[in-house]
Design brief:
The complex is a heterodimer of chains A (298) and B (162). Chain A has 298 residues and is α+β, with helices and mostly antiparallel strands. Chain A has 3 domains: 51 residues, no CATH class; 116 residues, Uridine Diphospho-n-acetylenolpyruvylglucosamine Reductase, domain 3, CATH 3.30.465.10; 109 residues, Enolase-like, domain 1 (2-Layer Sandwich). Chain A has 11 helices and 14 strands. Chain B folds into 2 domains: 75 residues, Beta-grasp domain (Ubiquitin-like (UB roll)); 71 residues, DNA polymerase, domain 1 (Orthogonal Bundle). Chain B is globular, with a radius of gyration of 16 Å. Classes of the chains: A alpha+beta (298), B alpha+beta (162). At the A-B interface, strand 1, helix 2 and helix 6 of A face strand 4 of B.
Chain lengths: 298, 162
């Protein structure tokens, strides 16, 4: 059934709300029929209303947002660990992120709107696996790892091997993304994220880009560049990175790297922007984010 | 599927039988009759349905009512003291921060969360704009809305706030 603005009704569903991991695993072990694991629902509801997902035979909905074991931000030795069902605003406000990864906090602040960030979770953004997922480039440049759990046991995967295509990833339907973790950035590291869309808030990025730099004595010791909306999945750009590593950081070197980045991607033309426009944006955003990192460190 | 839930709206507990697929927006408008909560895009773009959940602004169209048991929900009705407007609402009327009024309840809730939690002395226009970035005003009356929120901050600083 459609409502007056043409969107569809949410399908009839059975609502499950496990209160801890044990209950969740138990539920996943014996549940029958179509089921879906959700957390914030900020992407799930538009997906069913817009018709991207249809559940004609009803749906068992498993809501994991009330599981305390999945909501945390901690600094554990030299790694920052974030629970899969942690809302974005909780990550942005966490002392460990503010102090050790302000670049990530800033990147997450550009996502959606305050209303969505208060509910939407980091795991949800990753699991939806949109090529335009705005949290992902910032996490890719941090060399993040995800931990996936299910009744078959725990798995770990680097984030850049997690995505398989638009909306597809390595997870099975009965698995849960329990944690995302990454090395806490040191003082000689910096990261920046920028995106372009038709509006600053609540927008699907036309291109988003994140850069991370590690500098020692004016030389680039490490660089990572990642982009969203320029390929079937969010991607790292190893070719462009290789141009900078080990070299002196200059504006010319950054420019050459950004030019290479704009050629390394495989954008498509769609209603948000043409492939050519996306290449132009990729160049500009790479240059801007790398320059911002350089200015932080030198 | 029908289910029994307890919802806490504006400090009143409602015992309700709802559909499991009902959004908080639908339950607030149709069952508890909090019709200040406006229905528009139903996909989190416009913010007309903004309410506070445990003091934080959320889109009630993107939340299943079944999932908010145990949370405190607040709508603009909860800001009023009897027939008296909240200082923030008064600021919106004084500065003409509303035109057609459709976005206003959501805008007020986003603004309330901002001003209520703002601890620093200065509240810049950029901070205000960032806080209401999830609320669209199609009359495009943003300048007066920002002025209204600035006035509300002044009212709070003067001790006129609840």
């Amino acid at each position: 059934m459609k409502n007056f603005i043409g969107s569809r009704a949410i399908p009839d569903l059975v609502y499950h709300c496990p209160e801890n991991m044990e209950q969740l695993m138990d539920l996943l072990g014996h549940i029958q029929g179509h089921f879906k694991i959700v957390a914030g629902c900020t992407d799930f509801i538009p997906a069913v209303r817009g018709g991207r997902w249809a559940f004609d035979d009803g749906l068992e909905l498993i809501d994991i947002k009330k599981i305390p074991e999945l909501k945390y931000v901690t600094l554990d030795g030299d790694r920052i660990r974030i629970g899969g069902a942690t809302p974005l605003s909780m990550i942005i406000g966490a002392p460990a992120i503010k102090e050790r990864a302000p670049g990530l906090a800033h990147g997450l602040t550009t996502m959606a709107s305050p209303q969505v960030r208060n509910v939407g979770t980091i795991g949800g953004n990753i699991c939806m696996s949109s090529p335009a997922a705005d949290a992902v480039p910032s996490l890719l440049v941090l060399d993040a790892q995800v931990i996936i759990n299910g009744n078959q046991g725990e798995e770990k995967s680097p984030l850049d091997r997690f995505f398989l295509g638009p909306g597809r990833n390595i997870m099975a339907p009965d698995q849960v993304l329990t944690e995302i973790n990454f090395p806490a950035p040191a003082a000689n590291e910096s990261q920046h994220f920028q995106k372009v869309g038709t509006r600053d808030a609540v927008v699907i990025s036309i291109v988003s880009a994140a850069s991370w730099l590690k500098v020692d004595n004016g030389k680039c010791q490490g660089v990572r560049i990642a982009m969203g909306s320029v390929a079937p999945t969010p991607v790292r750009l190893p070719g462009a990175e290789a141009l900078l590593v080990g070299n002196s950081l200059t504006l010319d070197a950054i420019d050459a790297c950004a030019k290479h980045a704009s050629q390394e991607i495989t954008p498509i033309t769609d209603l948000r922007g043409s492939a050519d426009y996306r290449r132009d944006l990729a160049y500009t955003l790479t240059k801007r984010t790398l320059t911002a990192c350089m200015n932080d460190l030198m | 599927m029908k289910m029994q839930v307890q919802l806490n709206v504006n400090d009143t507990t409602h015992q309700l039988e709802i559909d499991a697929n009902a959004t908080l927006l639908e339950v607030l408008r149709n069952l508890t009759r909090h019709q200040s909560v406006h229905r528009s895009c139903e996909e989190g773009e416009c913010g007309a349905c903004t309410v506070l959940m445990d003091g934080q602004p959320v889109n009630s169209c993107l939340i299943l009512a079944a999932s908010v048991q145990g949370n405190r929900i607040m709508t603009v009705e909860g800001l009023m003291k009897g027939d008296t407007l909240h200082p923030l609402m008064k600021a919106f009327t004084d500065e003409l921060g509303l035109q057609c009024g459709f976005c206003t309840p959501g805008m007020v809730m986003s603004a309330y969360a901002l001003v209520n939690q703002w601890e620093e002395e200065v509240l810049s226009d950029m901070d205000i704009r960032k806080a209401i970035e999830g609320n669209l005003c199609r009359c495009t009356g943003y300048v007066n809305i920002v002025k209204s929120i600035r006035r509300a901050k002044a009212a709070k600083d003067a001790g006129n706030w609840w």
